[in-house]
Known about the structure:
The chain is α/β, with parallel strands linked by helices. Helix content is about 35%, strand content about 15%. Helix 14 (about 475-480) links the parallel strand 14 and strand 15 (about 490).
Amino acid sequence: MTVYIQVSIQYTPLNFFSKKKKNTYMLPRLSPLLRTLPSTSSSSVTPMALSLARVTPLSLHPARTTVAFFHGHSSPSNVAFVSCRSDESRLMRSSVFGRRFHALCGGEEERVLRPSRNVSAAAQRGYRKVRRRAVKRKEKELELNVSICIEDELPDDPEISSIAELLRLNAPMLMKSSFDSLKDSEYKTRDTAIEDIGGFGSIELSILLCNNEFIRKLNKEWRDEDHATDVLSMSQHVPELKLPILMLGDIVISVETAARQAVERGHSLLDEIRILMVHGLLHLLGFDHEISEEAEEEMEKEEENLLKSLEWKGKGLIQSAYDSENNSNLNIENSDDRKKEGSLRFYKPKFSYIFCDMDGTLLNSKSQITLTTAKALKEALSRGVKVVIATGKTRPAAVNILKMVDLAGRDGIISESSPGVFLQGLLVYGRQGREIFRRNLEPDVCKEAFMYSWEHKVPLIAFSEDRCLTLFDHPLVDSLHTVYHEPKAEVMPSVQHLLAAAEIQKLIFLDTAEGVASTLRPYWSEATKDRAHVVQAIPDMLEIVPPGTSKGSGIKMLLDHLGVTAKEIMAIGDGENDIEMLELASLGIALSNGAEKTKDVANVIGASNDEDGVADAIYRFAF
């Protein structure tokens, strides 16, 4: 839900900028959103319309809250809400980015009746007139109009909505404090195009909360800098127009960048947005820290003064930026792009799908999913990213493991009705969990392998959809169930019985890592030739699968079935069996514990599986 709030504040200024100076014209600060002002002669044009025209042409429900705010009362407790007006929705499309906004104002029109002037009872009855005392002239009140907008692409998040509500009070307080502070100031570098606010009937300011993509486009279009930033200020004040309204302009704040900076600087998101709002307003009032060192010092000083006077936490933006640059403990390589746990709701996903391996990737060395990794997966799901398991495991094994961290079922990553790639791509399930591909090993290859297993007493497991079959019990066979969560192996009386029991998709030999590398892999690579293919996901296991099949080919088939392109996916793996998957994906991430061949083809090498590598990849690269 997007929100638009307009606040009107009245207070009595303290003869702001009494020193008259030559007329100077403040050029738009960072890069204004230039708009043609509607003709004030039209009856359909209202101050509201003038205000809306500045952010971009928005789709809005106009709403106004009028607040009595008299000079000297800076505490929110002294703000009295006078009236609220809600009109019907009027929709307009943005001509800039096609964004849509709307405004909310609750309730029907409410009015507070002000007491009428007292009428003398004597005058009513015709008694003689008495000499009246001179009425003290009331000081002129200045109306502050503040528009608060939330950009449509930001999530419907309670914290963002709460911050927008607080800005209804904070922004007018900041404006009042800044005007009073500048009254007696003698800054040398400030542009004085705005010098006498007492000459205006009202002052207007808009504040837009947006995401990184929105502010990046603004930054590119108006400043020719193609990157996101924290805050942009766009002046709308044109002195030569001699308008009765001082249109300060727009302050655009990226909530995504603000959230990251809040974490780095050790305060709340609200604190950071207040700091950015102070910085943005000072730009609109003529400060510019980029023109000289003296100008930077003056703006930094005024930032500190305002934050201190309002009792808001944190340092000014200029000082905070210097502190970040000078912090020798800040690891730029590892911290630039990593989002805070729990903050993904502020960020836009870069990918529609994340394909993730299990053993050695999603699972740590204890074959467990840590709580940190589970939390990252849940956050990704909550932001609309679909996580698809691509593993050598059976589907029941994957379900059992993810069930332990509450990620199995219809609202989790995996269920009997979700897509997935299993048994190294030999079983692929599509929409509603329906099987869309199956490939079996040749019976002759299976027979030779089990004869070898019986003769050399090397444990061998046959995988048949959701079943595991073997010829004899062995501790390594048991570990496949107790450690790796595969279905408990059924012991068959003979090779003939085993082959007749089910169609076999793949075989796994279990031995020591040395035994696999020195004996099993060389032997079976030669023995199978073109009839099968040998792969390794774990050092102490050797898998025999049908030729021409792989996890990568299974993923291609699933993507075609779902109508998804490779550009929409990020893939995370570690083993040689993940190579094709990582090469296929738009972004392939190999964990640092992975095979060297896998890391050679990856776009990025991430943290290890014992360092929550999947969680780190999600927080760093997926949003």
